[in-house]
Structures are given as C-alpha cells and as structure tokens.
Amino acid sequence: MSRPARRVPATATAPVYRVALVSGANRGLGFEVARQLSERGMTVLLGARDLDKGLQAARKLAGAPGEVIAVQLDVTQQDQVDTLARWIEVTYGRLDVLVNNAGAFYDPAASPSGTAIAPVRDAMETHLFGSWRLCSALLPLMRRHRYGRIVNVSSGCGASTTDSASCPAYRVSKSALNTYTRALASELEGSGIQVNAVCPGWVATDMGGPGGRPVTAGAAGIVWAACLSEPLTGGFFRDGQRISW
After folding, report:
1. What is each CA distance from 153 to 9, 20, 64, 156, 225, in whole angstroms?
2. Residue of 17, 92, 106, 170 with catalytic role
3. Is CATH 3.40.50.720 what the domain over 6-242 is classified as, yes or no?
4. Active site residue 180
C-alpha cells in the first residue's frame, strides 16, 4: 500500500515573480512544460545539452508572457550544473521551480537479462544522479526564500506495483528516482519546498513514439505540480491525481 502524499503547513506566500528551470527542454515534453510555465508569466530557463538547439527552442517561445532563456545543461556533467547554479544565483538570486525532465533510454524491446550494464548506468546517470545533482546545487536558492517546487518527471512503469520485463534501464532508474523523491520530500518537510514525482503518461514524443496522448496533456500535470498552491509534498501524481508508488 502506498503512503499518501503528506500535507505540510504553508510557510511562505508564493512570490509574484518566479524563476523556473526545466532540464531537457529543447524539445518534446520539456519544451511544452517550458511553454506552459512561460504562459503563466514565469521566467523560464530552458535547459539543453546542445545550446544551439536550446536557443532555437527559446526563439519559438518569444513573445510569451514570461521570458524564456536557453541555458546549456547536461545533467550528467557536474561542472555544468555548478556553473549554471552560480549563474542563476548571480543573475536572479533565486530559483522557485525546478523540473527534472531530462531523460531517455526508453527501450521496449530490451529485457533485464539481455541488457548490458552500460545503458543502465547511463539511465541512472541521467534520471537519478542528474536530478540529484540539480537538486543539491539549487536547493540553497530555494531555502533562501523558503519557497520551492521540485518536480521529478517519473513514469508509472517505475512504480513498484508494475510488473513488466520491458524497458529495464528506464524502469529501474525511474524507480530509483521515485525513492529519492520521497527521501528528499521527507527531509524538506516544513521548509516551504515541496517535492513531488509526476508521471506524464504515455505521450506522443520522439521518445514515446506515436500513439500517445498529446504532449500538452502530459505537460499539464507537470505544470500543475510546479505551480502547486496546495501544500502537498512527497507524492506521486498523474494528471493531478495521486497514484501508487
């Protein structure tokens, strides 16, 4: 049985001016999350491993209510994470929303016994350790104002109640991310920083392939968690509804 998301006392009034960072945001789900956050008036830092692709993506969102700025970010590189954290501190002095969206390694044809260790290690490096790096580097900026929304983009296939042999690297790394989400939420309870995992569902993107639902629908659940006014932390959600870990 899953533990319900904990309700925590509100400790700060949400700021009028908000800065958000979305990793893996130059295309697909991350791009749509960046677009929806900018439509809410946030300044959005659009993280991309390839800065040129990030700049192209940011230009597509020119004219949105919130400014969108491309930043180079490979979540597997500690030096890039540290450099970006310092830049955000100097430029804005705060970070209100962190969406750990960078991801890959979805391989339905793979099996646990036939998968080499290398792709599993790479999946862990991106999904778990990449999210961990960003949280550790950017939490001081959230603690400073006692306000933050951390959203770890996960997947229902990483739930412990799901039985399947497909996508083992993806599945195991997302399950680990879920565990980290719960541990971090427990540590930060009462701090004004809320940490939740969100499953966007099967979305029609380059990674998810055709047949999924519109990317706008998958992104909406992530944006909901990024903009929570209700004091919920330590939960796993899809479309704003709690699901089993």
Report:
1. 24, 15, 24, 10, 10
2. 170
3. yes
4. no
